[in-house]
Design a protein that fits this description.
The protein is mostly helical. The protein has 14 helices and no strands. It is globular.
Amino acid sequence: MTAYNKTPSTTHIAFASFIGTAIEFYDFYIYAMASALVIGQVFFPASDPAAQALNAFLTFGIAFIARPLGAVIFGHFGDRVGRKATLAASLLVMGFSTLLIGCLPGYETLGTWAAILLCLLRFGQGLGLGGEWGGAALLATESAPTSKRGWFGMFPQLGPSIGFLLATLSFLALTLYLSDDAFKAWGWRIPFFASALLVLVGLYVRFKLAETPAFAKVLAQHNTHKTPVSALLSKHWRPVLLGAFAMTVCYNLFYTATVFCLSYGTKTLNISRADFLQMLCIAVLFMAMITPVSAGLSDKFGRKPILLTSCFLAVLAGFPSAP
């Protein structure tokens, strides 16, 4: 066997970073869709519609509490054990949590315990995604040529667009082919079951990887940190905070436009579920197209100008989006 066959190509590495984030964000987004459309009715039926929606969004928000914790936990083991094993573990955590949500009986069967278990599984989804994002970005950028780090770092970011598109298309298909009663009774669970097959594909791709050259070198020199997060926060706390604040704009705009607007548009503005889901599909296609464009520009002009421009445009987008 040649050395080329033993070492994954940069194309394989880019695909592996892409496929993992696509699957994990598919899992994350199908819950987002379900929380906007049906979670409140299935797990909080005793409350009025407004309270149902609020409770569903609260369960959705639990994952955002878990994501930083997942980043710290999986980041620790990623710097101690390696990227490959940690990325496989994060994918499994997300996959099991998603599958179990699909299997979880509703309020009519378990009562309050249904909501409690739902919150725990949603927390598990957040842990898995928190570990996936940073690990996939490292996998791509540590294997990239110096002049192409923005381009290779684009592949983990492209995954969420494709994951969101798959999630939206799955709920659109269910909307078109199932009655409202069938969708509420069992149809919404189908995308959660389908996640198990996607996770198996992702694991197959991930297990064919080797460690990144940067980490393999550190491991060979026995130069890993005992507590990586301490070294990170003591030496690089300012870039960490700046990066976190920069992402706040992105996440605020994205989840407002997708999760909240999906609920508001279908329940308050009475836009049909199929029409709104089609609009989201169109929107995410533009997101997918601009991702490689931004990556290429960041390699040419630098990360800071692209981030500042993007944040400014995101702020402006909030004004026409106001109801």
